[in-house]
Specification:
Elements (H helix, E strand, L loop, with lengths): L1 E6 L6 H11 L9 E5 L3 E2 L4 H10 L4 E4 L4 E2 L4 H8 L10 E2 L13 H7 L11 E5 L2 E5 L15 H12 L4 E5 L17 H9 L4 E4 L5 E4 L14 E5 L16 E5 L4 E7 L3 E8 L6 E7 L7
Parallel strand pairs: 2-4, 3-5, 4-6, 8-9, 9-10, 10-12
Antiparallel strand pairs: 1-16, 2-14, 7-8, 11-12, 11-13, 14-15, 15-16
Helix pairs in contact: 3-4, 5-6
Length: 299
């Protein structure tokens, strides 16, 4: 594996650094699809979503969102007036996930109305798709809105069936609330059963938002133990909403940044993936590297 972690350059080199990162984030070949995005995006009172949206213009591929697409209430007007002019320019290539602020409007009607069929059924908000050699699942961590997230919940039952029906060497899952984060004091148990289903199926990557910061974890099991068959979690709540600091440093946390807006770019090869955190213009933090996919854990 190859990792370049937590790079900070002198301010005088900011422009050169940004150019270099943007070049590395350029379009991939048709055989190597790209997922790029973040969570916690548009706030009508602030403008950082314009800066992150500009990054998407230079990165070919499928755009994902990791929830809290527009603030403060996820209304139809906010989606049209705030999300629409920025990230909404890439609606045709976007695969969204819902967040708690999207549900501030009853039944997340603004979210589902704006994204339409690409957001899945309005009664559940979870769905899956294949992207190159990979299988991707978009999940809904607003559990009270969809009948729970427990072992026997409709979502986890669907997830296990979906993973069994789409065996792949590499699998990625995206939703809003992270189980592990240094922005919270303890693991979030709402996604424990989701993590277990993904771990049992040999999933490789989880991307979350909710915490307004960037964090990369080492591979770990659903209970947080280091494991070569574990899932690597990225928290990317850096899409434009105000950033926040860290509290208790979580076990297995490898890289953390709470003052840089940007997007996560994932280049999905047949049995490996490259990742790069791409900062907005004028900011210099970056994090990049490559990892192999690992398949199902040993019995």
């Amino acid at each position: 594996m190859n990792i370049r972690s937590g790079v900070r350059l002198p301010t005088i080199a900011a422009v050169a650094s940004l150019v270099a990162v943007m070049l590395s984030a350029g379009p991939a070949s048709a055989a190597d699809p790209v997922l790029v995005g973040a969570g916690d995006i548009s706030d009508c009172a602030r403008g950082h979503d314009w800066a992150t949206a500009k990054l998407l213009a230079g990165i070919a591929g499928t755009v994902f969102t990791a929830g809290d697409n527009v603030y403060p209430d996820g209304t139809t007007a906010e989606f049209q007036d705030c999300y629409g002019p920025t990230w909404g320019r890439y609606l045709a290539r976007t695969r969204p996930a819902a967040g708690d602020n999207d549900y501030e409007t009853a039944d997340a009607s603004g979210y589902f109305g704006y994204f339409g069929a690409r957001a899945g059924s309005p009664t559940n908000g979870y769905y899956s798709f294949d992207i190159g050699a990979w299988h991707a699942v978009i999940l809904n961590s607003d559990c009270s809105e969809i009948g729970g997230c427990g072992v026997r919940s409709p979502q986890v039952t669907w997830l296990r069936s979906d993973l069994a029906a789409h065996p792949r060497a590499c699998t990625i899952a995206i939703w809003h609330h992270p189980r592990f984060s240094s922005g919270q004091s303890t693991p979030d148990d709402r996604s424990l059963a989701i993590w277990q289903a993904l771990y049992d199926a040999g999933a490789d990557v989880i991307v979350n938002g909710h915490r307004h910061q960037y964090e990369r974890f080492a591979q770990q099991t659903p209970t947080g133990l280091p494991s070569s068959y574990g899932i690597r979690e990225f928290v990317v709540g850096t899409g434009g909403a105000p950033l926040t600091g860290f509290s208790t440093i979580a076990p297995n946390s490898r890289v953390r940044e709470s003052s840089t807006y940007g997007v996560l770019k994932l280049t999905l090869h047949a049995t490996t993936y490259d990742f790069a955190f791409v900062p907005i213009a004028g900011q210099t933090f970056s994090d990049s590297g490559s990892f192999p996919c690992h398949g199902r854990p040993a019995a």
